[in-house]
Amino acid sequence: MESGITVTGTGQATAPADLLRLTLSVGQDASDVAIAVAQVAERTEAVTAALHGEGVAAADIYTSAVSVHPQYGDSMAVAGYRASHSMTVTTRDLTGFGRLLNAAVAAAGNSLGLDFLQFDVSDKAVLVDQARELAFQQARQKADQLAALTGQSIGSIAAVAETQGAVPLRAMKAESARGGFAADLAVTPGEQTVDVSVEVRWNWS
How far apart are CA 175 and CA 202, in angstroms? Predict the structure, then answer.
C-alpha cells in the first residue's frame, strides 16, 4: 500500500481586459437561393470594408459561420431560402463598441445582427503562471498542516495533476440590429479571471 498524502490546491489570477470580440452576422431571406447568397456576400463585403475604415485590421476579422438553408411554409413546401454569414471581429479599442456597430449597421442595415460580445485578455500565460503558483502554495500549506496533525514529515513529490479554467469577462447575445445603435453606446470591460487547480501527491519522508 502506498504511503503518503494527496491534496488539492486552487489559485486565481486576474487582469484587466485588453480585447473586445464581437460576432456580427449578416442574414438575408429571398425566394431564390442564389439571390440570398449574393445579397449576403455583398453586404458582408460592405460590413468588412466599413470595419476596415474604422481601423480594424484585416487579420482581426474572420468568418466564424456560413449557412444556407430552405425555409418552409405551412404546407411544408419550400417558401424561400435564408443565407447568413457570421464574422468574428477583434478590436483593442475597448471604447469603440458603439462606433463599430454603427459602421456595420450603416453598411448592412436591418440585415445585421450582433450575436455575441466578449471581453478578453490577449495573453493569459502570465495569469496561468500566477494562478498555478498560488495553487501549488495552497496545496503545500495543506500538506504541511496535515503532516503536522498526523505526526509525519513531507518527503518528495510523487505526482502532480493540473486543471485550468477561465471565467469570461462579459458575454452576451443580442437581437438583430434595427435602426442602429446610439453613438455613445458603451460597455464596461471587467477583469479576466483564470483558475488553476493542482492535485499533488507527496511521499512521507
Answer: 53
**Mean pLDDT over residues 23-35, rounded?**
96
In the prediction, which pLDDT does 171 show? 43
- Those residues whose C-beta lies under 8 Å from the C-beta of residue 162, and which sit 6 or more positions away, are 132, 135, 196, 197, 198, 199
- 96, 103 in Cβ contact below 8 A? no
Whether 28 contacts 113, CB under 8 Å = no
Residues 6+ apart with CB under 8 A from 100: 22, 51, 54, 56, 89, 91
Element of type H or E holding 25: strand 19-30
Structural contact between residues 197 and 12, judged by C-beta atoms closer than 8 angstroms: no
Mean residue pLDDT of the chain comes to: 89
Place of cell 466564424: 64
Residue 90 CB burial class (10 angstroms; 0-12, 13-18, ≥19): middle
φ, ψ of residue 191 in degrees (nearest 5):
-120, 140
Residue 169 has pLDDT above 60, yes or no: no
The predicted model scores a pTM of 0.73
C-alpha cell at 203: 511521499
Helix (H, G, I), strand (E, B) or coil at 107: helix
pLDDT digits (tens, 9 = 90+) for 141-155: 999 999 999 999 999
The predicted model gives 112-126 an average pLDDT of 91
